[in-house]
Amino acid sequence: MTNDFLITLFSMQQPRRHRVIFGLLKHQATVSTEYWGLRYRLLTVTGLLPKLDKAVFDQRIAQLVADGFLMEVGDGQLCLSASGQKAKEAFLTAHYFPEKLDTLLQYDVPMFMQAFLLATQILSEKAYGNKAYYPLQIEHRLMQQVKYWYTTLDKKTIIAEWVGLLNNYLQTLPMMDANALVATWIGHDVAGLNFDQLDLPATWHEEDFYFWQLDMYAGLILAIQNTPALGGLVQLTGKRTNLPAGVQFTYERVVAGESEASLLQHRRIKIGTIREHLLTAAIWLPRQDFPYEYFLTPAIQTYFAQRLTGNIDEWTFSMVRTSADPYEFFLFRLYEILQTKHEDG
């Protein structure tokens, strides 16, 4: 058995590149990384470990290989061995795997957690009429935002509203989760407990605790996001987007009918960049939201369908290439994305 969460990100059937998995976890993704994240069905772990160190990650992968849980199958790709599959199943039984990955993709949950803990402290001290306390130290800009948010509240009603909403949320959780979550909060004469001070499963380690916290606060975001005062706390940290501003702009202009030539003229970016933007949008957006038909005409799709069969992971550009025009690779990759979306329903 292994205590390393990384084993859950590999498969017995599908060879996977560990550099792709690192790029996803760290959210240092190229279009190629995101494409393979789509093929691995691992896009939901994007940004899950933003502070992950490359040397530490490589060491953890090397240990899984040395232990015989991962096998090298060529070209920097790894598969789970039979013992690795058993270790993966044992890990998932003994450890915590994040369940709210879709919400984690939508919101900056770690930043919200910081804001919430400071806000809880402020309101707790307010409830006791205490103005002389040392505030929780969080990222400076966020601290100023939380302080400003507090000035906008109705001080006569906010504490009762806060307590009521938190009680409602806690009642939706298993008792162990509710008790442990409350024990981590900071308030008047309460420091908040750390991982090793909590009554959590003995098999957990700090990474389990981190994932558990992410799920607890992701659930809290969903519970309070539409409430008048507390919803404002969610808005401080805002929503995450996997479409950077440039990608979003290119996508919107193309959907509106603007041509590549027009985009080149007005934006002064390379044609390759425009096509990368479009591939990124296709990877992240639902099938119905991307205009595949603008590029993949019936004739092109028929040509690809005749030459590209079987496992998409085994397709190569050489199977359909007819010239040195880079546009052909764009169409090939876009077709792979479309077929992956079809596979996933």
Descriptive overview:
The chain is an all-alpha fold and 345 residues long. The protein folds into three domains: 5-94, Arc Repressor Mutant, subunit A; 106-237, no CATH class; 245-343, no CATH class. It has 16 helices and three strands. It has a three-stranded antiparallel sheet with strand order 1-3-2. A hairpin with a 4-residue loop joins strand 2 and strand 3. Helix 6 (109-127) crosses helix 10. The two termini are 34 Å apart. 28% of the residues are buried. The model has no long low-confidence stretch (mean pLDDT 94).
Q: Which regions have little confidence, pLDDT < 50, spanning 5+ residues?
A: none
Shape: globular
Q: What is the makeup of the main sheet?
A: 3 strands, antiparallel
- Tally of structural domains: 3
Q: What integer value in Å does the Rg equal?
A: 24 Å
Element pattern in H and E: EHHHEEHHHHHHHHHHHHH
- Number of E strands: 3
Number of helices: 16
Strands side by side in the biggest sheet: 1-3-2
Give the % helix.
Answer: 55-70%
